[in-house]
Amino acid sequence: MKATQKPPTAAQVTTADLLRMAALYLRRHGWHQGTYYDTTIDTPTPPACAAGAIGIACAGHTVEHFSQLDGDALADYLAALAAFVDYLDIHYPLFLVDEDGYVIDDHTSPYSWNDDPLCTAETVIAALEGAAKEWDRLHTQGGER
Q1: How many CB atoms neighbour CB 124 within 10 A?
Q2: Helix %, strand %, coil % of the chain (to 5)
Q3: Per residue in 59-76, pLDDT tens?
Q4: How far apart are CA 98 and CA 75, in angstroms?
Q5: Which residue, among 132, 92, 131, has the nearest Cα to 108 in the 3D structure?
Q6: What is the pTM of this model?
Q7: How many CA atoms lie less than 13 Å away from 9 in the CB half-sphere?
Q8: Of 109, 125, 113, nearest to 30 (Cα)?
C-alpha cells in the first residue's frame, strides 16, 4: 500500500455476521411463520421467518422474492442460507418424506422447519446463532479470518 492510499475502514461482513444480524432482527422485530414477512401490518420492519430475516440482513430491507436481490446480496443470501441449512441438518433435522417413506430431500428445508408447528421464535434465534458460531468455527484459524 502506498503512503497516500487510505486503508480500508470497514471490516468485511461474513456469513456468520449475516446469520447473527438475522437473529438480532428477529429479536427486535418478531418472528413469523407461513410467509417471509407478516404482511398484515404496515411497517418497514415486519416480523419475518428465518429466511426472511436472513434476506433482510443481506439486503437491508424486505424484498418480494430473493431473486430480486442484486448479485452480491444474492450471493450473500445463498451462502448464509446454505450455512443455516447445514446447521439444521445436524441439529434440527426435518426431512421431507413421500407417502412410501422415501426421503425426498437430503437437506432440511429452512422454510418447512420454520413453519413447523413445534418451532418457536427462541428455537429459530438459537439456530441462527448456532449456525453463525459453527460457521466461525469452520472458517477461522486462531481467531483470524
Answers
A1: 25
A2: 50, 5, 45
A3: 999 987 888 888 899 999
A4: 31
A5: 92
A6: 0.83
A7: 2
A8: 125
